[in-house]
Design goal:
Main location: membrane
Helix content: over 70%
Subcellular location: Cell membrane; Bacterial flagellum basal body
Protein name: Flagellar biosynthetic protein FliQ
Order of helices and strands: HHH
Oligomer: single chain
Organism: Pseudothauera rhizosphaerae
Structural class: mainly alpha
Number of helices: 3
Membrane topology: Multi-pass membrane protein
Length: about 90
């Protein structure tokens, strides 16, 4: 296995990890921003007020985007397992 192949495989793994984590992180970030604006406007400083909506939004995002995320991950794993004979030989 050449160093170029290892770097390419690592790059693909990082790309897939970013694609899989992006929807959940973006949903949490947008929710946190909206809750922060609400807290600043009403001067409510309750920590659980920001935690519970983030968890709910991330769960809903996971349910909605779950099939797409699973497809991306299984496609990557399938390509990885199919390329094993080429990497060894």
């Amino acid at each position: 296995m050449t160093p170029t192949a290892v770097i390419d495989l690592g790059r693909q793994a990082v790309e897939v990890a970013l694609m899989i984590s992006a929807p959940l992180l973006l949903a949490a970030m947008v929710t946190g921003l909206l809750i922060s604006i609400f807290q600043a406007a009403t001067q409510i400083n309750e920590m659980t007020l920001s935690f519970v909506p983030k968890v709910v939004v991330m769960f809903v995002t996971l349910v909605v985007a779950g099939p797409w995320l699973l497809t991306k991950l299984t496609d990557f794993m399938r390509r990885l397992f199919e390329s094993i004979p080429g990497m060894i030989g």
